[in-house]
Write a structure and sequence with these properties.
Elements: E1 4-7, E2 10-13, E3 18-24, E4 33-39, E5 46-51, E6 58-60, E7 68-73, E8 78-83, E9 92-99, E10 114-115, E11 119-124
Parallel strand pairs: 2-11
Antiparallel strand pairs: 1-3, 3-8, 4-5, 4-9, 5-6, 7-8, 9-10, 9-11
């Protein structure tokens, strides 16, 4: 069982930066592949970025590639999402997620087993 808590969201102007954190409880964080998703009210949850369990492989949605960076510190049980050059269309609730399977890449929300409660990111124009 993994419990996830996101933090770091807020209001930022277009072009600005934010860093989201996701802290996991339990001893098994380092065994889980992780991901970030986002959701706008009334729309489906959208994949943002993913990372394998040891942090050697990362992958991104085309909409954030080159602007967002996912990383993890297994000694701190923490996942990060560094967001730069933010745009108004990045406004959403951002969720971190963990998956039990360590195989392959996962961009669908149904492939993840544990979720945080979300943190709001609002980008003003």
């Amino acid at each position: 069982q993994v419990q996830l808590v996101e933090s770091g969201g807020g209001l930022v102007q277009a072009g600005g930066s934010l860093r989201l954190s996701c802290t996991a409880s339990g001893r098994t964080f380092s065994r889980h592949a992780m991901g970030w998703f986002r959701q706008v009210s009334g729309k489906e949850r959208e994949f943002v970025a993913g990372m394998n369990w040891i942090g050697s492989s990362t992958y991104y949605a085309d909409s954030v590639k080159g602007r967002f960076t996912i990383s993890r510190d297994n000694t701190k049980n923490t996942l990060y999402l560094q967001m730069s050059s933010l745009k108004p269309e990045d406004t959403a609730v951002y969720y971190c997620a963990a998956r039990t399977s360590i195989l392959g890449r996962a961009t669908m929300s149904g492939e993840y087993d544990y979720w945080g409660q979300g943190t709001q990111v609002t980008v003003s124009s």
